[in-house]
């Protein structure tokens, strides 16, 4: 393994994080609908180091700072397809023969949703759900782009992966933030809760005026495994959140388990996805 800790970018590839989520939540267990976490196989050191940096740095103030900066959307204006191609310029250090490129992951997710006969907005959501990862191309470190997400501003749940690393997060010892509810009130609703910063929250804000609420929940909370797989934050959720999380749960297996044996043909599918985008989105989006 190469020495990765120097640059604060421990993962060889962003996919390493997602591969680890699949390791934690294997498809067999999902199909069997068991409440099951795979603690057996240890994560790669790179993944553990990734979470160490993530958990130390994702504080309440950090999230507000990033939102203040990135939600100005003053970096780039692109059509959906341009954004997909831009994201695909993300070059990971891992072996390109083994890992799918970003476009393939998006298309495999959306094509699996389409094959199951879901509505157009659901297919489009699958196709664009990870576009927020362009944050990496704006110079953001991996730990502020990918990884499991979780609320900040209240106690970090021990159901979050590697909870021990939160002990070094400054909010861990701050009485304003380290109680069960922290700055929030019981069942205040997730829209009132600050989530750790990354590609999910960023893309939600880009899409919020264009897609149905179910789609926006899928985008915003797709990496919130501590809730949609572990139920760790019921105390902050409203009855409406619970209703909407059915959609997040419906989406999740397509994200994790849709690696097709034959990769989708990007050029053949492009016109279909451009038409789909035109149904819901403006010609260009601000990033
Ligand atoms: Fe994602
Ligand atoms: Fe994804």
Automatic annotation (TrEMBL):
Cofactors (names): Fe cation
PANTHER family under this entry? INOSITOL OXYGENASE, MYOINOSITOL OXYGENASE
Principal localization reads cytoplasm
Localization in the cell: Cytoplasm
Kindly indicate where the leader peptide sits in this chain.
none
Q: What GO biological process terms are annotated to this protein in UniProt?
A: inositol catabolic process
Query: Looking at the keywords, is Oxidoreductase present?
Result: yes
Question: InterPro entries given for it?
Answer: Inositol_oxygenase (IPR007828)
- List the molecular function annotations (GO) for this entry: inositol oxygenase activity; iron ion binding
Q: Which Pfam families match?
A: MIOX
> Which keywords belong to this entry?
Cytoplasm, Iron, Metal-binding, Oxidoreductase
Q: What name does UniProt use for this protein?
A: Inositol oxygenase
The source organism is Zunongwangia profunda (strain DSM 18752 / CCTCC AB 206139 / SM-A87) (Wangia profunda)
Mention any one GO cellular component term assigned to this protein in its UniProt record.
cytoplasm
């Amino acid at each position: 393994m190469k020495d990765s800790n120097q640059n604060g970018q421990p993962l060889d590839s962003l996919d390493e994080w997602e591969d680890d989520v699949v390791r934690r939540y294997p498809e067999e267990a999902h199909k069997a609908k068991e409440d099951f976490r795979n603690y057996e196989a240890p994560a790669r050191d790179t993944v553990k180091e990734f979470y160490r940096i993530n958990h130390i740095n994702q504080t309440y103030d950090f999230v507000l700072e990033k939102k203040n900066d990135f939600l100005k959307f003053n970096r780039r204006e692109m059509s959906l397809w341009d954004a997909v191609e831009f994201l695909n310029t993300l070059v990971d250090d891992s072996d390109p023969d083994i890992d799918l490129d970003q476009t393939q992951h998006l298309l495999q997710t959306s094509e699996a949703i389409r094959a199951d006969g879901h509505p157009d907005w659901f297919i489009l959501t699958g196709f664009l759900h990870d576009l927020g990862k362009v944050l990496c191309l704006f110079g953001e470190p991996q730990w502020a782009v990918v990884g499991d997400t979780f609320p900040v501003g209240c106690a970090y749940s021990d159901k979050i992966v590697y909870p021990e690393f939160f002990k070094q997060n400054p909010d861990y010892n701050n009485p304003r933030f380290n109680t069960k509810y922290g700055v929030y009130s019981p069942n205040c609703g997730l829209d009132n809760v600050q989530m750790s910063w990354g590609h999910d929250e960023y893309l939600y804000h880009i899409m919020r005026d264009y897609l149905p609420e179910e789609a926006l929940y899928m985008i915003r909370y797709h990496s919130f495994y501590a809730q949609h797989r572990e139920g760790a934050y019921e105390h902050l959720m409203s009855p409406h959140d619970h209703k909407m999380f059915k959609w997040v749960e419906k989406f999740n297996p397509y994200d994790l388990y849709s690696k097709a044996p034959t990769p989708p043909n990007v050029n053949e599918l492009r016109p279909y996805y451009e038409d789909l985008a035109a149904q819901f989105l403006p010609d260009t989006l601000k990033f």
